[in-house]
Design brief:
Blueprint (H helix, E strand, L loop, with lengths): L4 H60 L5 H4 L5 E3 L6 E3 L3 H7 L1 H7 L5 E8 L3 E2 L14 H7 L4 E2 L3 H8 L5 E6 L5 E11 L2 E11 H52 L14 H25 L1
Helix pairs in contact: 1-7, 7-8
Length: 296
């Protein structure tokens, strides 16, 4: 099969086309992935700032309305709740926040890219987690580690950095103790002008990876269709262009057998036309030589 020029040219052209498309596709997927990630983080910055402002406002209103004092709002005398591992704690304000900010935090989870949205104090204490992380305890530590995460102190490197940050929005890659890796975007919470903690939003990296995978699969599908169409079109075009070569190969064979009477028509100016012209001149020369031989 590969002895035919048409097949060789078709395979070579499509190999080159494959390399170009594959390189372009890789670039598009990489750039689109970066773009999706940047869009996600930009949205995270806005949501973290909004969350921090709303929680700060709720705490200030509670102080103004006498629900608890300023000192109580900044209570760090964590009272351990017995029987939990990891440990859980109460503070002087956590019961109020369970009612006041739970719906607010859950609202952020309408965005399916958001894994969690919570307020933590300066030491990483999380008084009220999202509803999905306040499931009843099962006694299975692995399940409870995922399903019941409220009232814990998250003072790991990322958690503490988010809690202590006072310099605006902070973006970090966060590997949760459940093994899930995500983006952690946080903004400082101020209460009466004093730094209380931070509002943290966890964004799933799986959504970005899934979007990249979907895009990659689409490109592979498009590339397969293009290559198949190219195989057909190039094969037909090349064989059509090379068809005169077969005709002239037959003529060359006839000349070799002494058939020199039929004139070879020359049309066009391309290489095949030049070949026809050469064969015609060869035919004329052979015919003249054969005529001389006959006369002798």
């Amino acid at each position: 099969m590969f002895a035919k020029i048409g097949v060789k040219v078709t395979v070579l052209v499509n190999l080159l086309l494959f390399v170009v498309i594959a390189g372009g596709g890789y670039y598009v997927v990489a750039e689109q992935g970066k773009s999706l990630e940047m869009q996600l983080l930009a949205r995270g910055e806005i949501e973290a700032v909004v969350g921090s402002m709303m929680v700060g406002k709720l705490l200030e209103e509670a102080i103004d309305n006498g629900v608890f004092s300023m000192a109580d709002a900044f209570d760090t005398d964590y009272q351990e709740i017995p029987g939990f591992n990891p440990r859980k704690y109460h503070t002087k304000y956590d019961f109020y926040l369970d009612k006041a900010i739970l719906a607010l935090e859950d609202e952020f989870l309408r965005d399916d890219s958001v894994v969690f949205a919570v307020a933590v104090d300066r030491q990483g204490y999380l008084p009220t987690h999202n509803t999905r992380y306040q499931k009843p305890l099962t006694g299975d530590q692995t399940k409870d580690l995922i399903g019941n995460r409220t009232k814990r102190i998250f003072n790991d490197t990322v958690g503490l950095a988010a809690a202590e940050n006072e310099e605006g929005v902070l973006k970090q890659v966060y590997k949760r103790d459940t093994g899930v890796t995500m983006w952690d975007v946080s903004a400082p919470i101020l209460v009466k002008g004093k730094h209380w903690g931070g509002f943290r939003i966890g964004f799933s990296l799986e959504k970005i990876q899934q979007a990249q995978s979907d895009l990659r699969n689409k490109l592979i599908g498009i590339m397969a269709v293009i290559l198949f169409a190219s195989l057909v079109v190039v094969f037909v075009a090349v064989n059509s262009a090379l068809k005169p070569l077969g005709h002239f190969t037959k003529i060359a064979g006839d000349l070799a057998d002494g058939k020199v009477d039929d004139k070879i028509e020359v049309t066009g100016r391309d290489e095949i036309a030049q070949l026809a012209d050469v064969l015609e001149r060869l035919r004329v020369s052979l015919k003249a030589a054969m005529d001389r031989l006959r006369k002798r």
